[in-house]
Write a structure and sequence with these properties.
This protein has 9 helices and 2 strands, in the order E-E-H-H-H-H-H-H-H-H-H. The protein has a two-stranded antiparallel sheet with strand order 1-2. The protein is mostly helical. A hairpin with a 2-residue loop joins strand 1 and strand 2. It folds into 2 domains: 36 residues, no CATH class; 125 residues, no CATH class.
Length: 170
């Protein structure tokens, strides 16, 4: 791959060298951008069977956790002994639903977001088909435009790293 550089100078002094991105660099940037801005929730909402299944699993998991029964233990924590990015999320969502917002956020900072997504999945599973498709298209357009999915993933990974190094207690 060829790269062109341009020198920046002021009079007889060299200030710096600027690398001019080539077509291959722009392609890589576009690939990263398209992955970062790829819609996830919009296409999911288009598939009624998938959102009904996810809504049902979410309701069952939260109900069992609220009842004090552990429905699904974290495979990462039980295998490796390290909390995964979602450890404590279900318990935090239960606390959030019970109105203990501070305790929920203390347990897992992303509980309100995932609680909202859970409610959205339940609501989306009972919407009329035309309205469901219209909302799915709007969500997909928002995801493509804002990069919210990529930002959320990066935020959760940063939160996880902070929890692992004990800067934030789970």
């Amino acid at each position: 791959m060829h790269q062109f550089c341009e020198t920046i100078s002021a009079g007889n002094r060299l200030i710096g060298i600027v690398r001019i991105p080539m077509k291959a660099d722009r392609i890589k940037i576009n690939q990263i951008r398209s992955g970062f801005f790829s819609p996830v929730l919009g296409p999911l909402v288009r598939n009624r069977q998938a959102i009904v299944l996810l809504a049902a699993v979410t309701i069952v998991q939260i109900a069992l956790t609220a009842a004090g029964t552990i429905a699904w233990q974290c495979p990462v924590k039980s295998t490796l002994g390290v909390a995964c990015p979602a450890c404590g999320l279900t318990r935090a969502m239960v606390l959030f639903a019970q109105g203990h917002w501070k305790a929920a956020i203390d347990l897992h900072a992303f509980a309100p977001i995932f609680f909202g997504v859970g409610i959205f999945l339940v609501a989306g599973s009972i919407l009329p088909a035309r309205l469901q498709q219209k909302i799915a298209n709007q969500i997909a357009a928002f995801e493509r435009h804002s990069g919210i999915v990529g930002l959320l993933i990066l935020s959760i990974l940063a939160y996880w790293i902070l929890r692992i190094i004990n800067l934030m207690n789970p």
